Amino acid sequence: MKLPRPLLHAARIADEILFYPALALVIWGELTGTEPQFVDWFGNLTDKALHFIAYFGLAAMAAAGLRSRRAVFGASFGLIVLGGILEIVQGFTGRDMSFYDELANIAGVIAGAVTARLIIEPLRSRFGYW
Known about the structure:
- The chain is 74% helix and 0% strand.
- With 130 residues, it is mainly alpha-helical.
- The protein has one domain.
- Helix 2 packs antiparallel against helix 3 (69-90) and helix 2 (48-65) runs parallel beside helix 4 (99-127).
C-alpha cells in the first residue's frame, strides 16, 4: 500500500508547525517560578522524568519533521544547548539550577531523536517520501 503523497506532506508540515507551540510550552514550564512535582515509580517526587519526557517529545518532533540526518543532529544539539541555557536562567527565576535536570534533558533529546529516526527511516524507504 502506498500512502498518498499529499497526506504524508501534510503530516510532515503539521509536525513542523506544532513543534513551535510545544517548544514554547517547554520553555514556559522551565521558567515558571515553582517546580512541578511528579511521582516516579519509587514514590519519590522528581521533575527529572518531566524533563526527559519534554525533551524526548521535542527531539522526536524535530527528527520526524527534518529530512536529513545532519539537520536532525543540528536540531538535537540546539535542543541540548537550549536546555543548558534554560537551566542557567532558572537560577534567576527562583528555581534551582540542576546539572541532573540537564542530564535528563540530554537523555531525552538523544532518545527522542533516535526513536523518531528509527520510525521515519523505514517509512521513507518504503513510501519514498517524508
